[in-house]
Design a protein that fits this description.
It is built from 5 helices and 2 strands, in the order H-H-H-H-E-E-H. It is elongated and about 70 Å long. It has helices spanning 2-16, 25-34, 45-70, 77-111, 132-173, and strands spanning 114-118, 125-129. With 174 residues, it is mainly alpha-helical. The N and C termini lie far apart (70 Å). Helix 3 crosses helix 4 (77-111). The chain has one domain. It comes from Parathermosynechococcus lividus PCC 6715. This is DUF1230 domain-containing protein. Keywords: Membrane, Transmembrane, Transmembrane helix.
Length: 174
């Protein structure tokens, strides 16, 4: 019974809502959830960390030889190693920044009381105020599902930045 009422209200909301389905914040959130790239952020922490470590290793396979090729033969081997590690770390840092930006965009759209959308192209932007029930639902999703993802990504970003700064300091010390 409750499912029938819920689906009825969802149908009414969808028929009254002029926003195209792919531009609705809840659908944008679901798209990111199902995305192979953005979905990593929702994985359990150990699995997420393994994925970042795998990315770091793959980037190291590229940045290591680049560091070797770009340094003179008189450069200290330690400096070459630090350059390779820093290059790999910067790649992972860029990936994390991209994850944060994607989730922040959807989070902003979930929290706003209005939905800005385009009917047919960039030149005919419209704004639709969300009904109270939809706004409350979107804000709950942001608070309990999206905010923890953003928190994890921010902590990861800070750790990567601190590691990069320490590598730069090590470079100067060598």
């Amino acid at each position: 019974m409750l499912e029938a009422v819920s689906s009825h209200f969802a149908t009414v909301s969808q028929t009254l809502c002029p926003v195209p389905a792919d531009q609705r914040p809840i659908n944008e959130y679901r798209d990111l959830q199902g995305s192979w790239f953005f979905g990593w952020s929702m994985w359990p922490l150990p699995r997420f960390q393994r994925r970042l470590a795998l990315l770091w290793g793959m980037a190291g396979v590229v940045s290591g030889p680049l560091a070797i090729a770009s340094m003179t033969s008189q450069a200290a081997p330690a400096k070459v190693a630090v350059a390779g590690v820093l290059g790999a770390n910067l790649f992972v840092l860029l990936v994390v920044v991209r994850l944060i930006l994607g989730w922040l965009y959807v989070g902003d759209r979930l929290q706003r009381p209005t939905v800005i959308y385009e009917e047919t192209g960039w030149y005919d932007g419209q704004e639709w105020p969300k009904p109270e029930a939809e706004l409350a639902q979107d804000r709950l999703i942001y608070t309990y599902e999206l905010r923890p993802i953003l928190q994890r990504l921010r902590v990861t970003l800070i750790i990567l930045l601190l590691f990069s700064v320490s590598l730069i300091g090590l470079w100067g010390w060598l």
